[in-house]
Amino acid sequence: MRRVLIVDDEPQMTRALDINLKARHYDVATAPDGTTALRLAARKPPDAILLDLGLPDVPGIDVIIGLRVWTSLPIIVLSGRTDTTEKIAALDAGADDYLTKPFLMEELFARLRAVLRRPPAIDEPGTVTLADWLIDLGAYTAVPASGDGEPLHLTPTEWRLLTPLLRNPGRLVTGRRLLREVWGPEHEERTNYLRVYVACLRRKLEPDPAHPRHLITEPGLGYRFEP
């Protein structure tokens, strides 16, 4: 049975989530504040965390940062804050997804199932399959998965952009993070760079670049690699 930790100081929200999770055969733990959440997660790591940002003791962003020091377990933020800046900050800190309150329970559970299906993040160089290509992140090579045909040429900039996406399968990587890692912090607002280079990667890697299945745009936030 999958175990989910709810971190929220609103009793009505906690109760609603607890009832709905148990009805779908999840094991549930609850924490009313960030300190308790960090302690429970360390003592018995859950399979996923549902986290409110407005906690009474420490900001939810700090809880995400504290968790990411030692674990890559899925974190879905559930927050009434609708500002895009808040969403980007949570995702930059390491959250996997962000759902604005109020939300439909069915949408929450669809997102929960999605994050629980994702393979873990790749911390060390490894091999990733993307459509018809076998990509070696350590050797920086892309060859046909069939074993037949010529290797694919990617520019150094394309490699720097593609690598963080492939290392975090299924997780949204913010545009700000990509711009910072590829071009430097002074270029964090140059979103046109991303559009141009992601389009190039899709033409090279996606079977149908006009309808990408693996390099997905999250409008206003960033990009996601779906295996």
TrEMBL record:
Keyword Nucleus (UniProt): no
Name of a matching Pfam family: Trans_reg_C
Main location: cytoplasm
Gene3D superfamilies the UniProt entry points to: 3.40.50.2300, 6.10.250.690, Winged helix-like DNA-binding domain superfamily/Winged helix DNA-binding domain
Cellular compartment(s): Cytoplasm
Annotated positions of the 4-aspartylphosphate modification: D52
GO biological process, one term: positive regulation of DNA-templated transcription
Keywords: Cytoplasm, DNA-binding, Phosphoprotein, Transcription, Transcription regulation, Two-component regulatory system
InterPro entries associated with the record: CheY-like_superfamily, OmpR/PhoB-type_DNA-bd, Sig_transdc_resp-reg_C-effctor, Sig_transdc_resp-reg_receiver, WalR-like, WH-like_DNA-bd_sf
DNA-binding region per Swiss-Prot/TrEMBL record: 125-227
Domain (Response regulatory): residue spans on this chain: 3-116
Ranges where the OmpR/PhoB-type domain occurs: 125-227
Domain of life: Bacteria
GO molecular function, one term: phosphorelay response regulator activity
Statement: the UniProt record of this protein carries the keyword Transcription regulation: yes
SUPFAM superfamilies: C-terminal effector domain of the bipartite response regulators (SSF46894), CheY-like (SSF52172)
Protein name: Response regulator
